[in-house]
Amino acid sequence: MSLQDAMTAVERSLDDLVRSVGTLETQLGAGLDIRRVRTDTDHLRESLTLLKQSVAAAPPAHRRTPEVEMVPISDAPYDSALWTDAQDEGLGCRNGHAP
């Protein structure tokens, strides 16, 4: 589905929603709850109009997601000689005090 087709489908769905809310409003009366729903549909229409304008001004570029290279990590224990010169700031020190 192209971007234009998706926008058209959203517009049609929103039009259907507005008509359905109108039907409910006729049946239920203009109470607080139905006015809140009516306001929400109006906000959706405004948001869709803004979205269409921003897409028309700068169409989104198709971005390709970069492939992530998986690096296997062995479960074997590391050689303790790798850590002989490392500074551990006292964590795990033999005498329990920082150097």
What is the makeup of the main sheet? none
Distance between the termini: 64 Å
Listing every helix as H and every strand as E from the N terminus to the C terminus, the arrangement reads: HH
Residue stretches low in confidence (pLDDT < 50, at least 5 long) are: none
Rg, Å, rounded: 30 Å
Number of helices: 2
| Number of strand segments | 0
Name the structural class: mainly alpha
**Shape type:** elongated
Description:
With 99 residues, the chain is mainly α. Helix content is 53%, strand content 0%. It is built from 2 helices and no strands. Helix 1 runs antiparallel to helix 2. The longest helix is centred in the first third of the chain and has 26 residues, at 3-28. The chain is elongated. The relative contact order is 0.08.
How is the secondary structure organized here?
Blueprint: H1 3-28, H2 32-57
Helix pairs in contact: 1-2
Describe the structure using short key phrases:
mainly alpha, 53% helix, 99 residues
Can you summarize this structure?
The chain is mostly helical.
